[in-house]
Design a protein that fits this description.
With 448 residues, the chain is mainly alpha-helical. The chain has one domain. Helix content is 66%, strand content 4%. The protein has 20 helices and 6 strands. Helix 1 runs antiparallel to helix 15 and helix 6 packs antiparallel against helix 18. The chain is globular and about 75 Å long. Its main location: membrane. InterPro entries: NCS2. It is a multi-pass membrane protein. It is found in: Membrane.
C-alpha cells in the first residue's frame, strides 16, 4: 500500500514550495484536489470517444484503471492522469470507417505494445539517448506545442457559449488570486462550479439523458466492452496507420516527465522509461476491451501548476473516482452535461498553462535563442501546432502534434549538423551562462 508523508501542516503550501509526489496534504484537501483532476480531464477524455464512436463509460473506466496502473508501474513516484489521447482520433476514425471498430482497437493495442517496448529500452539503456534526441529546446517546444495545439479545441467550446465561458474563465483566475490556502488551490474546481451554476440559470444545461436514465432506474451498470480484431484481412493495413501515434505518445510522456521534474525534482526524470511502459500497458489494456488509447494528460499538469500539489495521492483519488463514475450511467451523464461554455472557459486556462510549462523548460535550461537552430526549432514547431497543420494521403493523416514534433527534431538535429559542418555558429552552443547570483540585471549583462 503506498504511503505519503504529510506536507507541512497538511493544509497550506508555503510560497515557493510544492507538495512533492511522495507527500500529501490532509485527506479532505487531497480528495478535493483529486476531484479537481477528474474535472480537468473529463471534457477531453469524453470528447475522444464521442468523436470516434467509442463507448464513453468504457473509456472512462480504463482511464481510471490506466491511471492506477501507471502509479503502480512508476512506483508511486510520478504524478499523472492517463486520459484519452487526441492523437488517436484520426486513425481510429479512418480505421473504423474502413475496417470496423475491432480493427481500430487492434491498432490501439499495437501502439500500446510498441510504446511499452520503447519504454523498456529507455529503462535499461538509460536516458542518455533520449536527452540527446530531445534536448531542452526540443523538449520545451514539444511540451509547449501540445498545449498550444489544443487552443482551437478551447476556442471551439468557448464560442458556443461565450458569456458562460467568460464567466468561468474569470472565476478561475479570480479565485486563484483572491483566495489563499486551500480555496486558492482549488480555483479550477470552483470556477467549474460557478460556470455550471451560471449555465443552469441561462438554461444551457441539458438534463434529457440524465432524466431518462433516472426514469429507467439505471443508477449502476457495467460499461460496454468490445474486443480487438486481429484476424480480418484489413486489420494489418489499418495498424500501419496507427504507428506514427507512438511518436506523439513518446513526446507527450517525455514532456510530461520533464514538466513534473522541472516543477519538483530532477530525479523524476529517471521515471521516463517506466512512464512509457505504463502508458503503453494502459493503452494496450484499454484497446483490448473497447476503450480509447491513453496518454499522460496535459490538462492535469495545468492543475498541478496552478495548485503546486504534485502528490500522487491525489491521482489515486482521481483514478478511483473515474472507475466509480464509469459504473454509474447517471453520474456519468451528469458530468457529461457540463456545457461547452464551461469547458471552453476552463480549457482556455489549462491549455495555456501547458504551453507556459514548455516555455519554462526553455527558461530553466537557459536556451540560447540567439542561435538560428534554436530559433527555428521553437518557431516552426509552435506555428505548426497553433495553426493545426495536417498532412494527408488518402485516409492516412498526420496531425499537428506529430508534424510539429517531427519538425522540431529534424530542424534541431539536421540544422546542428549542417551548422557545425559549415562552422557558421548557427548551431546550439549550449545553455547561456548565468550572470550574477540571481541572473544579474540589465546593467550587469555582457554584450553579446
Amino acid at each position: 500500500m503506498p504511503t505519503w508523508t504529510v506536507h507541512g501542516n497538511g493544509r497550506t503550501v508555503e510560497p515557493g514550495q510544492v507538495v512533492k509526489p511522495d507527500e500529501r496534504l490532509n485527506w479532505p484537501a487531497t480528495i478535493a484536489i483529486g476531484a479537481q483532476h477528474v474535472i480537468a480531464m473529463f471534457g477531453a477524455t469524453f470528447l475522444v470517444p464521442i468523436l470516434t464512436g467509442f463507448p464513453v463509460s468504457t473509456t472512462l473506466l480504463f482511464s481510471g484503471v490506466g491511471t492506477i496502473l501507471f502509479l503502480l508501474v512508476t512506483r508511486n513516484r510520478l504524478p499523472s492522469y492517463l486520459g484519452s489521447s487526441f492523437a488517436f482520433i484520426a486513425p481510429v476514425t479512418a480505421a473504423t470507417a474502413s475496417a470496423g471498430m475491432g480493427s481500430a482497437l487492434a491498432g490501439i493495442v499495437a501502439v500500446g505494445v510498441l510504446l511499452a517496448a520503447v519504454g523498456f529500452i529507455v529503462q535499461f539503456a538509460g536516458l542518455g539517448w533520449v536527452e540527446k534526441l530531445m534536448p531542452p529546446v526540443v523538449a520545451g517546444a514539444i511540451v509547449a506545442l501540445i498545449g498550444f495545439n489544443l487552443a482551437p479545441v478551447a476556442w471551439g467550446s468557448f464560442q458556443q457559449a461565450p458569456v458562460t465561458a467568460t464567466v468561468t474563465l474569470v472565476s478561475v483566475v479570480l479565485f486563484s488570486v483572491l483566495f489563499r490556502g486551500f480555496l486558492g488551490r482549488i480555483s479550477i474546481f470552483l470556477g467549474v462550479i460557478v460556470g455550471y451554476v451560471f449555465a443552469l440559470f441561462r438554461e444551457e444545461v441539458d438534463f434529457t439523458a440524465v432524466n431518462q436514465l433516472i426514469a429507467e432506474g439505471r443508477w449502476i451498470g457495467l460499461p460496454t466492452f468490445h474486443l480487438p480484431d486481429f484476424v480480418s484481412p484489413g486489420t494489418w493495413g489499418v495498424i500501419a496507420m496507427f504507428l506514427p501515434v507512438v511518436l506523439v505518445l513518446i513526446a507527450e510522456n517525455v514532456g510530461h516527465v520533464r514538466g513534473v521534474a522541472t516543477m519538483t525534482d530532477a530525479a523524476v526524470n529517471k521515471q521516463t522509461g517506466r512512464a512509457l511502459i505504463a502508458d503503453g500497458a494502459a493503452t494496450a489494456l484499454a484497446g483490448s476491451f473497447g476503450g480509447s488509447g491513453t496518454t499522460t494528460y496535459g490538462e492535469n499538469i495545468g492543475v498541478m501548476a496552478a495548485t503546486r500539489v504534485y502528490s500522487t495521492a491525489a491521482y489515486w483519488v482521481a483514478g478511483i473516482f473515474a472507475v466509480l463514475l464509469s459504473l454509474s450511467p447517471v453520474v456519468g451523464e451528469i458530468f457529461n452535461s457540463i456545457p461547452a461554455g464551461v469547458l471552453g472557459g476552463v480549457t482556455t486556462a489549462l491549455y495555456g498553462l501547458i504551453g507556459i510549462i514548455g516555455i519554462k523548460i526553455w527558461v530553466d535550461n537557459r536556451v540560447d535563442f540567439s542561435r538560428p537552430v534554436n530559433q527555428y526549432t521553437g518557431a516552426v514547431a509552435l506555428v505548426i501546432a497553433i495553426a493545426g497543420f495536417t498532412m494527408q494521403w488518402g485516409d492516412f493523416q498526420l496531425g499537428a502534434i506529430v508534424i510539429g514534433s517531427a519538425a522540431a527534431l529534424i530542424i534541431y538535429h539536421l540544422g546542428n549538423a549542417i551548422a557545425r559542418w559549415r562552422k557558421t555558429g548557427a548551431d546550439d552552443g549550449g545553455a547561456l551562462p548565468a550572470v550574477g547570483q540571481l541572473g544579474g540585471g540589465p546593467e550587469e549583462s555582457p554584450v553579446r
